[in-house]
Amino acid sequence: MRGVLLLVAGIYLLFHLHSDFGRLADRAIRAIELDPRKPFFHRIIADLHHLHASEIRTAAVVACAYGALELVEGTGLWLDRLWAEYLTVIATSLLIPFELYELVRHPTMLKAVGLVVNVAIVVYLAYLLRRRRKSASR
Q1: Taking the CA of residue 83 as centre, how many other CA atoms within 13 Å lie in the half-sphere pointing to its CB?
Q2: CA distance 11 to 105
Q3: pLDDT score of 137 more than 80
Q4: How far is CA 80 from CA 76, 77, 86, in A?
Q5: How far apart are CA 13 and CA 24, in angstroms?
Q6: Is the pLDDT reported for residue 108 higher than 90?
Q7: 33, 45, 75, 110: least CB-packed within 10 angstroms?
């Protein structure tokens, strides 16, 4: 489901590169009866107003690529394919460099915990994969 949503979002963004996403966010926030003048929402809306088409294009391409990766990975896992387990380990570890960069740039305890959890998940998945390979070779 997440893969499909990412693909749909990426395709939508590709066809709406010059939209004012700040205005769209403002309307959406008002539609669910929240106050867009609250600092949290106001900052998001202001950031969205200043997006350039190149930034939207980059986000669209990344969303499409990651959505396709999620669909391939999910299908492979559903079919119980070993390559899909390798892909899961790789895909899960792809975010670690970005998390490290963010942690170095703006360190917070929450980011550090997130990084530790992600590394632990990758290590655990690799352990399970290795165990499966050993039991399959016997």
Answers
A1: 5
A2: 31
A3: no
A4: 6, 5, 12
A5: 13
A6: yes
A7: 33
Tokens 């966010």 belong to which residue?
25
Closest C-alpha to 61, from 53, 50, 71, 72: 53
- Entry pTM: 0.74
Q: Which residue has the tokens 């959505």?
A: 67
Rounded to a whole number of angstroms, the distance between the first and last alpha carbons of the chain is: 36
Q: Which two tokens stand for residue 125?
A: 């998945």
Q: Are 43 and 29 a contacting pair, CB within 8 Å?
A: no
Residue 136's identity, in one-letter code, is A
User: What is the token pair recorded at 35?
Assistant: 């106050």
Q: In the chain, where does DSSP find H-type helix?
A: 2-15, 21-31, 39-49, 53-78, 82-93, 96-105, 109-137
The confidence band for 123, taking pLDDT boundaries of 50, 70 and 90, is very high
The identity of residue 124, as a single letter, is Y
Half-sphere exposure of 129 (CA within 13 A, CB side): 17
